[in-house]
Design a protein that fits this description.
The chain has about 600 residues and is an alpha+beta fold. It has 20 helices and 22 strands. It folds into 4 domains: about 200 residues, Histidine kinase-like ATPase, C-terminal domain (Heat Shock Protein 90); about 120 residues, Ribosomal Protein S5, domain 2 (2-Layer Sandwich), CATH 3.30.230; about 90 residues, Rossmann fold; about 110 residues, Four Helix Bundle (Hemerythrin (Met), subunit A). The strands form 5 sheets. It has a 9-stranded mixed sheet, covered by helices on one side. A 5-stranded mixed sheet has the order 10-11-14-12-13, with helices on both faces. Strands 18-17-19 form a 3-stranded parallel sheet. Helix 10 crosses helix 11 and helix 10 crosses helix 14. The radius of gyration is 35 Å and the shape is elongated. The N and C termini lie far apart (about 110 Å).
């Protein structure tokens, strides 16, 4: 029997492992199962080059729980270890067996080698007060060995009996970690970290993993049904995805994976952290913001790359040029795929725009390279629905009526087709094309694109009276005299809490509403942005809503109002006309709305 101390630079290695090395306690299962996969893959490599003799037999990994003995055992039929191997790989903590193996067998399936062999093993002490190793090497005539350590630097190493090649790690679970003596907990952890490892893994006689997930196969081998089935495997409760992109790169970096575009019908359904990062099929994290461009965080699926640098716990990404290259590659692949669908099947693209638009707009705002490509396939949907325009198509369609004095095309848009219907109808009567901009990102998108598209400006359809939407016009052909206009302005000069109201008299058409409420584009846009920007937007969010009441001097109701000698009735009629206009803008609320209803009933009772 050999006794000794584990050769580390500090006696405090175990507290460090328990507290700082691994971010989550359940990570020990991932590390130990990964090591078992490592040992199995090494055996396959050695067998393929003739260094490992004899039959490989069934290569599998078994995880066993013994609640009475309070142990978890992870067994493999891989390369195994001799006493010398244990001394080298286990007793010298910081030594990486995988690294040495790669150097020796460079060029031969090195992509199959995962993990920091020795260090990963020590994660077992996060949950154990004693760990045993039983191992038998693949080498002919090797003697099986048993290693044992109680979490101090002291260990024992001795000969033992073991019939099968491979390694068993037996963890005696400590009192603080007895949560892991639950079959449900172990099963859930195995499914989280190990569900796509390349060697069959069994727990309670059931295989818990798919060793050949879709992303590890060639795109030419897969059908649409295969991709759909894999999506169901990842997200069993989701609707079918819109489409997918299969990543398969081996130069200048290794990257495989499948990214899916999910259906997103409502902005509140948006969820990030749906892309899973793997390294040679070992689950690493679902926080992929450094690898995947921000605007594609709404995608779902899997990315697998052994070239993404990971720290020793494999839980956090480290800065590296490869990460930026991968990020750029994913952006290009997504842009190319969207352009391909748009060019080859525009109708399908348009049908999916409700979900796709979020990705495209977000990307155009945050990534100029994507913007250049997306200008070809970003589309506006006509308020009527069913008709779509690219930017160039919209410019051609609106060239004669919607170009202002500065030579800019004015994109007229609605954020709420139902609420803004009267404004939309008035704009359409003039031949204007109104498009829908009603998603979560549209307020920010409009501001961004006005800076990036130099020949375009956006105006919401209710930002001014219809005559002024394209170019401001000061002319007024009202039938009212100047004195009558002044009287009306005075009648409309009441104060409304939480609103900053400006009043003007214009000569609109006789069939236009008696009062039109409009919200100046700049301030309304700032308030819309503030509503979704959190504390930074408080300045604009707390400012009163600005509204302009345009009195239509040509509406015949004002002839009656001006002749009304009962001042009280006159003021009530005028206030109701103003409230009707404010109601169309959604600006009549609370007590003001109640007062409007009561006043309307009273006026009807009085025959007004």
């Amino acid at each position: 029997m050999q006794k000794g101390s584990i050769r580390v630079q500090t006696e405090n290695i175990f507290p460090i492992i328990k507290k700082f090395l691994y971010s989550e306690h359940d990570i020990f299962i991932r590390e130990l199962v990964s090591n078992a996969v490592d040992a199995t893959q090494k055996l396959k490599t050695l067998s393929s080059i003739g260094e490992a003799k004899g039959e490989l037999g069934e290569l599998r990994i078994d995880v066993k729980l013994d609640t009475e003995k309070k142990t978890i055992t992870i067994s493999d039929r891989g390369i195994g270890m001799t006493a010398e191997d244990v001394d080298k790989y286990i007793n010298q903590v910081a030594f990486s067996g995988a690294e040495e193996f790669l150097n020796k067998y460079k060029g031969q399936n090195e992509a199959n080698i995962i993990g920091h062999f020795g260090l990963g093993f020590y994660s077992s002490f996060m949950v154990s007060d004693q760990v045993e190793i039983f191992s038998k090497s693949y080498k002919e005539n090797s003697t099986p060995v048993r290693w044992e350590c109680d979490g101090s630097p002291e260990y024992t190493l001795e000969e033992t009996s073991k019939e099968l090649r491979g390694t068993d790690i037996v963890m005696h679970i400590n009192a603080e970690s007895e949560e892991f003596l639950s079959a449900e907990r172990i099963k859930a952890t195995l499914e989280k970290f190990c569900r796509f490892l390349p060697v069959p893994i069994f727990f309670e006689d059931n295989q818990i993993n798919n060793p050949t997930p879709a992303w590890t196969r060639k795109p030419s081998e897969l059908t649409a049904e295969d991709y759909q089935n894999f999506y169901k495997e990842l997200y069993p409760f989701n609707e079918a995805p819109l489409f997918w992109i299969h990543l398969n790169v081996d130069y200048p970096f290794n990257l495989t994976g499948i990214l899916y575009f999910p259906k997103i019908k409502q902005s509140y359904e948006i969820q990030k952290d749906k892309i899973q990062l793997y390294s040679n099929q070992v689950f690493v994290t679902d926080e992929v913001k450094d690898i995947v461009p921000e605007f594609l965080m709404l995608l779902q699926g899997v990315i697998d790359s052994p070239d993404i640098p990971l720290n020793v716990s494999r839980s956090y990404l480290q800065g590296d040029p490869n990460v930026k290259k991968i990020n750029n590659h994913i952006t290009k692949k997504v842009a190319d795929k969207l352009e391909e669908i748009f060019n080859n099947n525009r109708k399908e693209f348009e049908e999916k725009w409700e979900s796709l638009g979020l990705f495209v707009k977000y990307g155009m705002m945050t990534d100029d390279k994507f913007l250049d490509k997306a200008n070809k396939f970003h589309i506006f949907e006509d308020v009527e629905g069913g008709k779509f325009y690219t930017l160039d198509e919209y410019k051609i369609a609106t060239e004669t009526l919607q170009k202002n004095k500065e030579g800019k095309i004015v994109v007229l848009y609605t954020t709420n087709p139902i609420q803004q219907d009267s404004y939309i109808q008035a704009a359409k009567a003039k031949g204007y094309i109104v498009v829908k901009m009603e998603t979560l990102v549209d307020a920010a998108f409009i501001n961004n694109m006005e800076m990036k598209w130099s020949d375009v400006m956006f105006t919401r359809v209710d930002a001014d009276i219809t005559d002024n939407l394209i170019d401001k016009s000061e002319s007024s052909d009202s039938v009212l005299s100047k004195d009558e206009e002044t009287t009306l302005k005075e009648l409309f000069g009441f104060q409304i809490p939480a609103l900053h109201v400006a009043v003007e008299v214009k000569g609109l058409s006789a069939d236009a509403p008696p009062v039109v409420a409009t919200r100046p584009e700049f301030m309304r846009r700032m308030k819309d942005m503030a509503a979704v920007s959190g504390p930074m937007g408080n300045f604009y969010a707390n400012m009163p809503d600005e509204v302009t009441l345009t009195i239509n001097g040509n509406h015949n109701i004002y002839q009656k109002v001006l002749k009304q000698h009962n001042k009280s009735k006159q003021e009530r009629v005028v206030r109701n006309l103003a409230d009707l206009a404010l109601l169309s803008q959604g600006l009549l609320k609370g007590n003001d709305l109640t007062a409007f209803i009561n006043r309307s009933v009273e006026l009807m009772n009085n025959g007004q």
